[in-house]
Amino acid sequence: MKKLLYLLILFTWFSCDFEQDPNLNTEGEDVLETKEVYIDAKELSWQDTVYVPIYSHIYSRSKEVEFFLTATLSIRNTSLTDSIYVENINYYDTNGKLIRKYLDKILLLHPMQSIEYVIEEEDKAGGAGANFMVYWGADVSQLNPIFQGIMISVNGQQGVAFRTDGISTSRRE
User: Fold this and answer.
1) In the predicted structure, residue 23 carries a pLDDT above the cut 80
2) Distances (CA, A) of 81 to 84, 106, 108
3) Which of 2, 29, 89, 160 is deepest in the core (most CB within 10 A)?
4) CATH class of 31-168
5) 91: enclosing H helix or E strand
6) 161 falls in which pLDDT band (50, 70, 90)?
């Protein structure tokens, strides 16, 4: 039974059509632009910073044996009625060095909308202690969006998948 389930997962995985750039649709158009808005984040009545742990790799058997992972930052607006605004998404390595900034403009996430950012398995810059800092805001303080890191990899018959949850580091009104 386990082998059948494993084969079904592999078949589904390999039959999917993956895009290299998560901001482009199948025609190569930038879908991220449709979510960008021109507002001053200072106008928002509620702002927060969320820390999300991400692992570019984990250790197997010893510190010398690294298992590299694909990592996804998932941001989900859980509100049925209110939008959230994502001001910055910054990716840091194990030593706290800024590797990459993801946004030039503020992103609007409508009610129940989600967005993902993928760190590919071959991208080893982050290390075992990599993280995202996400700066977001809203017009109301009762919102509880979800910020998660999802790590996954398959090597031969060994597979690994796990999730991390973001934590607020500075709620401010």
Assistant:
1) no
2) 10, 19, 13
3) 89
4) mainly beta
5) strand 84-92
6) very high
If one counts every other C-beta atom within 10 angstroms of the C-beta of residue 155, the result is: 11
Structure tokens at 121: 């398995």
Cβ-Cβ contacts under 8 Å for 12 (sequence gap 6 or more)? none
For residue 92, the one-letter residue type is: Y
Dist. CA 123–CA 79, nearest whole Å: 33
Q: Are 79 and 143 in contact (CB under 8 A)?
A: yes
Each residue's pLDDT tens digit, 29-47:
555 545 666 566 667 778 8
The 10 Å Cβ neighbour count of residue 52 is 22
* 80 has a pLDDT exceeding 50: yes
What's the confidence (pLDDT) of residue 79?
96
Q: Please classify residue 123 by burial: count the beta carbons closer than 10 Å to its beta carbon, then call 0-12 exposed, 13-18 middle and 19+ buried.
A: middle
> At 116, which amino acid appears?
E
Mean pLDDT of the chain: 82
Pairing status of strand 131-138 against strand 46-53: antiparallel
